[in-house]
Structure formats: structure tokens, C-alpha cells
Amino acid sequence: MMARTICVVLLAAVVSAGAVAQPQPPAPVPSAAPTVQAGDTRPLHVYIRSGLKSHGEGAHDYPQFSADWSKLLTDKGALVDGSFHFPSAQELANTDVMVMYKGDAGYMTASERQVMEDYLKRGGGLISIHDTLCGDDPQYYSTIVGGSKLHGERNFSSGAIKYTIVDKASPIMKGMSDFEINDEAFFKITWAKSPEVHVLASAPMPSSGEVVPQMWTYERTIFGGQPFRAFVWMQGHTYTNFKNPQVEGMLLRAIAWAGHYPVETLVNGTPPARTGGRGRGREGGGDASTAPGGRRGGQ
């Protein structure tokens, strides 16, 4: 009887020791950058998601954009990372804004959707350029960037894109006037309904004259997280248009806006104190139009 008792005690000790010795689960990937305190001058962290070139000379030059804008943004004081693949949670952990210039970025696996949603939940910003908004599920992707195009559907109009600036009060459109570029526009868009996009500029389609939004912002809170911001510029088919002074300044302001930084952060080329955002509070100064209570017309 005593021997049996000893065996039971020893067995319990072994099981207990084994339980203690079980490997611990890996530490979770951080879902947000460290908290930024008032007066912090941490540079805006930008991730450029690019792709392989898909068209002929001077068109859809995603790799060239990655190279040129990595340098431009770095020269403007930003921290820049990027890749030609869908970013991992680790790669987005400290990212403020993901700039996407890649064909058909709306295609995402279930795991990629989860990474994207986790990023947006903590307030990460998005910039979508040209056919980045194309994919296989425009209904879903419209809830990410406000409007989406179904891949494979003939849905473009090429020629003179004559912009009318709809919201001249938007900080992103500061100093801009109606202008024209030769490029490509999309017109069959699945639009988000709740909330809707805030249109910044529209243009008549060269083929039909139908007026369709071509620049917009989209702000939403999902899954009980922090508000996220997205900006869409429908053009970018013709690569030289990125050098247009109005386009370049607009994109620089949009990137800062999407990251909850003062809109002139990158235009000025120096990283001033943040206005907050991404669940960190909004201590300190900055452009009032970037704070929730200071938005104008959805801005």
C-alpha cells in the first residue's frame, strides 16, 4: 500500500513538473507602436507596398515609385520601409501609414485580411493609388478604402482628366486649383455606405462625360478599435504625373493626414510634434483640422 502511495506521489510530481516545463506560447506581435507622449518628434513611419511592373514604358511603374518615393519621403524626414509582398504583422507593428501602389491589392487571403484589420483597428493609415483599389471582392474592400473596383471588368476611361476640386477647404487640397493631367480614370465603383466617402475632387470621364469622384478620404472605426484614415487617388497610370507639383504636394499632405500627423509635416520636410491619433490621445498642438473635433466636412 505504501509503495502504491509513493508511486502515485511520484507520478503526480512528474506530471506537475511536466506542466511547469511546457514551453510558453510566443509573445504576441505588437498591435501598435509605443505610446507617443506630448512633444514627441518621432518621424512619421511609412511602409510602401509596391508590386512588379505590369504595363509598358512609363505606365504602372510600381518599382520606380517605390525607389523614388522612398528617397523623397526619407528626404522629407520620414522613416520608410516597404516590400513587394503583403506586409506581415511585424512589418506593420510600428507603421503609421501604408502607401499602396500595386495592381489589384484588393486580393487578400484570410490571414492577410486579418493582418490588415488588426492594423486598421489600432488606427493605421492607408494611401491607395490607381488600380490598388481593384480586387475580387469590392464590397469588402470598399469598407477598407471607401470605394473599390472589380478586377476584370472593363472599367477605365483614358485621356484628359480634368479635375474639379470639390473641397477646397480640405487641408489635403491646400492651395490646389482645378487642373488637368493625361491619365486613366475608373468609373464603375462599389462605394462604402456606412460611412460614405468624403469627395475631394471629381472629373468627367473622357469617354462619356460622366462625373465620378477621383480623390477622396475615408474614415472609419472597426471592431471597437481606433479611427483609421484612408486616402484614394484614382490616377497614377502615367508615371510622370507623380512629378506634377499639385499631385506631389497633395500626396505628401495625404500621407501625413492618414498618419494623424499635421498635414504639412512632409511638405515642410521636418517632423514636428504629433497631434496624436491611433489611440494615443491628442496632447499638444498641431493643425486643428487633423483632430477629431476639428475636422471639416469629414476631414
Describe the protein's architecture and organization.
There is one protein chain. The N terminus and C terminus are likely disordered. The chain has one domain: Rossmann fold. β11 and β12 form a beta hairpin. The protein has 299 residues and is of the alpha/beta class. The strands form 3 sheets. Strands 2-1-3-4-13-12-11-8 form an 8-stranded mixed β-sheet, with helices on both faces. It is built from 7 helices and 13 strands.
Summarize the structure in short:
The chain has one domain: Rossmann fold (3-Layer(aba) Sandwich). It has 7 helices and 13 strands. Helix 2 links the parallel strand 1 and strand 2.
Task: Write a concise keyword list for the protein shown above.
3-stranded mixed β-sheet; 7 helices; 8-stranded mixed β-sheet; disordered C terminus; 299 residues; disordered N terminus; alpha/beta; globular; Rossmann fold; 25% helix
